[in-house]
Amino acid sequence: MVDVSGWSDDGVVGIVKSVFVPGVNGAVIKFLALIFTALLVNNIVLLVFFGFNIHVVVLLLLTIGLGASIAWYIKELSTAEKKEKDDNKDNKDN
Questions:
Q1: 56 with 47: CB under 8 angstroms?
Q2: Contacts of 66 by beta carbon, 8 Å cutoff, 6+ apart
Q3: pLDDT value at residue 29
Q4: Contact by Cβ (8 Å): 20, 7
Q5: Do 21 and 4 meet the contact criterion of CB atoms below 8 Å apart?
Q6: Can you give the pLDDT at residue 90?
Q7: 25 contacts 10 by C-beta, under 8 angstroms
């Protein structure tokens, strides 16, 4: 395994570092938010320039749904990890 302990967690370096580290770190979550924001802006620009087009509206709705579902999943995953850490801490105390 590659030693990534000295690497920064910011920007592209953080994303590359996350390949070698189990789990999802903050850089990947920021990158996903950036990508979905860019995709959302792109779909809105398409809607404005081409007018009401059912295909663009469907793409916009799919983008919103996918972004919301990924945000929900990340939130639930972090809640589950936090609960697991608390449970492990309680088990060590006993």
A1: yes
A2: 36
A3: 82
A4: no
A5: yes
A6: 75
A7: no
Coil vs helix vs strand at 13: helix
pLDDT of residue 11: 66
Q: Which residue from 41, 37, 43 is spatially nearest to 55, judged by alpha carbons?
A: 43
Q: Is residue 28 within 8 Å of 10, Cβ to Cβ?
A: no
Q: What is the pLDDT of residues 45-72, one digit of tens each?
A: 999 998 888 999 999 999 999 999 998 9
Residue 10 phi, psi dihedral angles, 5° rounding: -95, 145
DSSP-assigned states of every residue in 30-90: HHHHHHHHHHHHHHHHHHHHH-S-HHHHHHHHHHHHHHHHHHHHHHHHHHHHHHHHHHHHH
| pLDDT averages per 10-residue partition of the chain, 94 residues | 61 72 76 90 93 91 93 89 84 68
